[in-house]
Structure formats: C-alpha cells, structure tokens
Specification:
By secondary structure, the chain is an alpha+beta fold. Strands 10, 11, 14, 15, 16, 17, 18, 21 and 22 form a 9-stranded antiparallel beta sheet that branches. Strands 3-2-1-4-5 form a 5-stranded parallel beta sheet, with helices on both faces. It has a 4-stranded antiparallel beta sheet with strand order 6-9-7-8, with helices on both faces. Strand 12 and strand 13 form a beta hairpin. Helix 1 runs parallel beside helix 10. The model has no long low-confidence stretch (mean pLDDT about 95). The structure holds adenosine monophosphate and glycine. The site of adenosine monophosphate has 12 residues, from strand 7, strand 8 and strand 16.
C-alpha cells in the first residue's frame, strides 16, 4: 500500500521510521518531510494544508492511507476532503479537531458529559471575564480559546497578572485565538500525557509519556514545545489508565459520535493527576512531539496496520497495541537561541556515530545545504534510546548525544530526572 505522511518534524520522522517497517508498505510519500524522513520516504511537494492538493496527490498516486502528523492540516479540513474523496485518513475531521482547536468547545463538552476537568468559564468580553476573576482564587489559569502554538496559556499568580493576561488576549495579542478566553481553576498535581487510538467508535489505549516543557535544567526558564520526554510515565498506573479511559476518553469519543462529529485518530489527553483523581487539562488531535518519538520506539506493532484500522472503522475487537516493557527516553537537541530566535544553519555531523551506539536520532528541524546537514528550526534533533530502566535509557540517550557534533546546539542534561529519582526510591 502507498502511504502519504504529512508533516516535517521529529514526530513525523518517528512515524515514518515506524511506517517504513511495515510489510504492507509499498511506497511512503512525505510532504514536506525532512532529511531524516527522506531515509524512509519519497519527499514530494504538496502543501499539507491545501485539502484539494492533498486529495489530488493521493488519487494520482494510488495512496491507500494518509497519515496527518500536525494539527494545522486537520484544522484546515484535509481529513474532511480525503474522506469525501474516499481516501482513508488517520486524523480527525475539522469538526472533530475542535477538541484541540477550541478550549471552550472541549470544556463545554466536559461539563455536559461530567468529565473531570477544572471548573471554568468562557468569555467573549474583557469586562465579563474580569467580573468573575475573584471567584477562581489564585493562581488562576487564563487561556486563549484557539490555537496559539502552545503559547496561549497564562498561569497568573496575582490579580494584576490575570488582568494583564486578559487585556493582552482581548487586545489581540494572540490574534483570533484570543477572541474568546477561558478562565479556569488552577489544578495541583503531576502532569501526564496519555494517548488513545480511536476509529470514532472503538477506542484503544496506547500509552503514557511525560515531557519537559521548560528550556533549562531543573525545569526552569521559558516554555518550549518540549525539550525531552520519556515513556512510560510510572505515576500513570494501569488503575489510573482504566479510570481515564472510563471517565475521560470513552465519554469524549461517545459524545463526539453522538453529536454527529465522530473523532477518529489519536486522542492525546493532557492530564493532571490531582488528589481528587485524574482531570483533563486539554486534548490534542495529534501525537505529541516529542512524545511520539518515545512511543514509536516502544511500539511492537505494525503501525501502518494500526493506523489503517483506525482510519477505516476496524478497531473494534482488536487488542490494544503492544508496547515494549522497556523505557524510552528522548533528548531534544535545540539550536542556540531557542525558544527565542534559534540560530539557523549550524552544521550537524556524526549522527551515524550516535546511532552506532544503538540510539535512534530523529530529525526535527534540519535541512541539507550542498549535501551537508544543517539546523533549520528551534528543535533540531531528537536523540532517542531505550533501556531496561529510565536511568539506562537516559545514559544511552546522552551517550548518543555526546557522539553528535552540533556546535551551535544545546540540550538539557537532566531529561527524566523526576522518573529516575522515583526509580532510585523504589
Ligand atoms: P494547555 O495548553 O491547556 O495544555 O496548557 C499549557 C500548560 O499550562 C499545561 O501543560 C499545564 O502545565 C498548564 N495548565 C493548563 N491548565 C491548567 C490548570 N487548570 N491548572 C494547572 N495548570 C494548568
Ligand atoms: N510535547 C507537547 C505537545 O506535543 O503538545
């Protein structure tokens, strides 16, 4: 079968690497892809956010499955157009992707279905929002409703900060994403990412991961897209998983189907494990990046077969995807300056030496210039390894990191620290 993969980051490289292992694969196409993805796929020039162009390419090249990596093509209606054209697609329709695209939509769904989440309100006027602020206590969480590239959330510790965030969002600081604002109560606990695969009706749990959002060691400094991740998250026990499936994920999938907008694809639940049980912070309509990198390293299953089953309503009765018991850990090598303005063009060498240690290096933001690999983005490489313990996986990942020559890059040196401390305490 021919498969078209949309996207160009480390998540998509991990998906391409795993798809390429499928005995069912004939040709993997990728748009726009990257030099790492090019090891497994034929790179093609199709705008991933242009539904008509994606459909035309799929038809002309007998594509039997389109896999959508990032959220933008979903919000642009690429899955809708493919479905209308009869091309199986892994990724939700635009209406279903509102679970990621509109925080107010998701909070309202949670309220209707009694899904545990922080108490909230949503507002389209600054005056109305200010009027309720005191009822939420401090800190208070203020979110732009729409997609804001992960930057639309402010945790305000004072009333002044909260008012400033409201003024910024309603003042257009986040463009259209801030026309509607959600205010919610601050939840205390540990955050976990949980991934489930659904075909719109049946849902299978995939697995858990935790990422490190801050740029600096000790989880300090500005927020990023994620500087590293590991899977599984030991705090997310099988009991918690069963609870999250029953109380959060399954009711969501049922409600979406009941509303006539079934959600098919991967449902990424950002959860807070609070003293009152797991609560939903947010949904994403895609795999996490870099969480996908660690999940793909553990997946002991034909990814093409799994994604195709989800895309063609054939998940019912299937066993949950098998994940290796091993721990996987990924370290992000970022370009100097990230998450501000990353330095472009830094030379990257010796990825082969890193992989000779047994690690897998996924390309997140690279390109080739005159045959040489250089940085082209904030997050540049995802150095990913497995081990019998988190400490082993971490040691293996950093051994590979140290083999790479990327003078204009940096990474955190403590990815997995919390999990390793827990491991030592056991
Ligand atoms: P979101 O984009 O909704 O995932 O929010 C970004 C980050 O803000 C989350 O990963 C959490 O760390 C934090 N956050 C969001 N909502 C809450 C909440 N209600 N309580 C505590 N932290 C939150
Ligand atoms: N690593 C967080 C995300 O993909 O949203």
């Amino acid at each position: 079968m021919n498969v078209l993969l949309l996207g160009s980051g480390g998540r998509e490289h991990a998906l391409a690497w795993k798809l390429a292992q499928s005995p069912r694969l004939t040709t993997l196409f990728a748009a726009p892809g990257n030099p790492g993805i090019a090891d497994h796929a034929r790179i093609v020039t199709v705008d991933p956010c242009d539904p008509a162009a994606v459909v035309a390419f799929a038809r002309d090249n007998a594509v039997g499955l389109v896999v959508v990596g990032p959220e933008q093509p979903l919000v642009a209606g690429v899955a809708d157009a493919l479905a209308a054209a009869g091309v199986p697609v892994f990724g939700p329709t635009a209406a279903a992707a509102r679970l990621e695209g509109s925080k107010a939509f998701t909070k309202d769904l949670c309220a209707r279905e009694k899904i545990p989440t922080a108490p909230y309100g949503h507002f389209d006027s600054e005056a109305d929002a200010r009027a309720v602020l005191d009822g939420f206590g401090l800190p208070v969480v203020i979110k732009a409703d729409g997609l804001a590239a992960g930057k639309g959330v402010v945790i305000a510790t004072t009333r002044e900060e909260a008012e400033a965030a409201l003024a910024d969002m309603f003042g257009g600081g986040f463009g259209g994403a801030g026309a509607e604002v959600v205010i919610e109560r601050f939840l205390e606990g540990e955050e976990v990412s949980f991934f489930a695969i659904t075909d719109g009706a049946a849902v299978l749990p995939l697995g858990s991961a935790q990422d490190h959002k801050r740029v600096g060691d000790g989880d300090l400094g500005p927020n990023t897209g994620g500087m590293g991740a590991y899977s599984p998250a030991s705090v997310f026990t099988p009991e918690l998983e069963a609870r999250v499936m029953a109380e959060i994920v399954e009711p969501t999938v049922r409600a979406m189907a009941g509303a006539g907008t079934p959600y098919a694809g991967v449902l990424y639940a950002g959860l807070m494990l609070t003293a009152d049980g797991p609560q939903l912070i947010e949904y994403n309509a895609r795999f996490g990046d870099p969480e996908a990198q660690v999940l793909m390293l553990r997946l002991e299953e034909d990814l093409l077969d799994l994604l195709l089953a989800a895309a063609t309503q054939r998940l019912a009765g299937r066993d949950r995807p098998r994940l290796a018991a091993a721990h996987a850990l990924t370290v992000v090598l970022a370009a100097a300056g990230y998450p501000g303005t990353p330095q472009a063009g830094g030379a990257i060498r010796r990825i082969d030496a890193a992989e000779a240690t047994g690690a897998k290096v996924f390309h997140a933001g690279t390109r080739t210039v005159d045959g040489a690999l250089v940085a082209a983005g904030g997050r540049v490489l995802n150095v990913t390894a497995t081990g019998a313990s988190v400490a082993d996986a971490q040691a293996a990942a950093y051994r590979a990191v140290d083999a790479i020559d990327f003078a204009a890059g940096f990474c955190r040196r403590d990815i997995g620290w919390r999990e390793i401390a827990r491991e030592k305490a056991r």
